[in-house]
Specification:
The protein is α/β, with parallel strands linked by helices. Strands 2-1-5-4-3-6-7 form a seven-stranded mixed sheet, covered by helices on one side. β1 and β2 form a beta hairpin.
Length: 197
């Protein structure tokens, strides 16, 4: 026989839980949300000081290090003491191919007066042989670094190829060119003559 359970009177639906406002925060933790927001804002402002900015004429050049095509570790400091024409390029870049004979000519013309030229190829990791073939095809004799990770593009804020930077012997940026350079660039030619006297 089933046990008989007492019946429960029906009182309708259960009452909704009460939603009373919380009392205002008091005590030593009352200001904690405001302090957290303020701290976050201040930290963000402080971090803004560490955000790199694009290179600018008259300012120190960004640093860079990489490996030459023959495996030698190079830094921009290795080129200090004389003007450096730094060129960021790639083998697949048609304007880069067009300007390479001009860069080689500058190296030959001003190299005896202290001008150094450094090519930084941003071709992919498997492009070592293509870079060597490019170098042979254009009879390039100035040093080249293979930068498959595009670090130079980040450091120098390069958004398109080629990009050329003239850095003086003290490591100060003297000229920036985004796009190809050639003999019609009077400002470049004047700066080279001034820096190699």
């Amino acid at each position: 026989m089933d046990p008989i359970l007492p019946s429960r009177p029906s009182a309708g639906p259960a009452p909704a839980p009460s939603r009373l406002p919380l009392p205002p925060a008091r005590g030593r933790f009352a200001a904690l949300p405001g302090v957290l927001v303020l701290g976050t804002l201040l930290a963000a402002c402080g971090a803004a000081e560490n955000i790199p900015s694009p290179p600018a004429v008259g300012e120190p050049s960004p640093t860079f290090e990489g490996q030459s095509l023959d495996g030698t570790d190079l830094t921009l400091d290795d080129f200090s003491g004389g003007p450096l024409l730094l060129n960021v390029w790639a083998t697949w870049c048609a304007p880069c191919r067009h300007e390479t004979p001009f860069l080689q000519g500058l190296y030959e013309e001003f190299g005896g007066d202290g001008l150094q030229v450094l090519g930084i190829s941003v071709d992919g990791a498997s492009s070592g042989e293509a870079i060597r073939e490019f170098r042979a095809e254009y009879a390039v004799t100035y040093p080249m670094i293979h930068d498959p990770d595009g670090i130079a593009m980040d450091r120098f804020f390069v958004v398109g190829l080629p990009a050329t930077f003239l850095i003086d012997g003290e490591g100060v940026m003297r000229l920036i060119r985004l796009g190809p350079v050639d003999e019609t660039d009077e400002e470049l030619m004047t700066a080279l003559e001034e820096l190699t006297q």
